[in-house]
Structure of rhomboid protease:
Amino acid sequence: MAWRGYLVKWTKVDLINSAVFPKGNRFPLYPQQRCGFRKAQRKPEPNKRGQEEPAHPPADVSEAAVQKKAAPPQPEPPIPPVPPRRPGRLFRPLVFTVGFTGCSFGAAAILQYESVKSRVQSYMDEAKEEELNRLRQTHDTTYWHNWWNQLTDFQRQVILLMSMVDDWWSGMSQGQRTVTGIIALNAIVLCCWRVPSLQRSMIKYFTSNPASKTRCLPMVLSSFSHYSITHMALNMYVLWTFSTSIVSMLGREQFLAVYLSAGVFSTFVSYVCKTATGRLGPSLGASGAIMAVLAAVCTKMPEAKLGIILLPMITFTAGNALKGLVALDTIGLLLGWRLFDHAAHLGGALFGVWYIAYGHELIWRKREPLVKFWHELRKEPPGGRPPSGRGGNS
């Protein structure tokens, strides 16, 4: 029975094959093709020239030529995008520059008024103290002699050191004392650059960049920011050298207004040049403000003799020095040198020359109405003006 069942099974399979395929068919039977699966075609491999081989080679040369003409051209590599130039980004820095300059000179005028007022009051107090000291001079000498004998050696050394510092401070000019505060601020900011946890905040607020979201406040703070010790030392040396001349010429309050305003204005000029050329990037340093100080002194005293610290035998006039620096920065700006921010240098020099030539007359000489307004405001009592007439309801 086993062979009979095998024969029947073989006969049914043979009938199915003859019904589906003719006898002349030479292809074998693959059951998976009956289920709808097809053999995956092999992906064409690129030839040596980097082009893909066609899946089916053309029949003749003419067909190959037609396919070659119909093939799409190879796409060119993409060109790196150019940084967008957005002049609208300069509107807020422009408004900030004008507003900050006006506020700086207004605050300087009020500060000068308060300084003169306190100075007069201190002179009057010193005169009264001198008269009292003449009456009790003998008693005071004995008292201070006994007090000094009661001190320890360490306390005496501290007092002597403080006395030496006070003598050194009193021996400096008013300009040098004013610049000492600026140097101290720059030194503090330089130390903050060395703190790793402050790096993000320092880059955001102490570097000026027209592509940054924060553009106005860094215009001021970047004028007190130096990352390199050498950069700071050179800038502060130039500022210290011209401090006595600029403060004696303008006064302490006016000098501070010029210094801060020049720093903001030079940064704005840098913003404009960077936006126009598309060379966006951060900048920092007090070079713009210091160029304004140097330009102001050289414009006011063009015949003054200047020299180089390492080459004392070479001397030149202040006017020629200013012309040489402006020419060097102009060449650097036109040739695209990136060692310094030449646009900021030119902006600071332009501000210094303009202020000595025109700005002093246009701004500082017209501060009288503001000072009068402040004087009247200071004369009012804390509760406001006293009411005129009799009080009460009628």
Q: What stands out?
A: The beta strands are 305-307, 315-317. The first strand starts at residue 305 and ends at 307. Residues 1-38, 48-59, 387-394 have pLDDT under 50 and may be disordered.
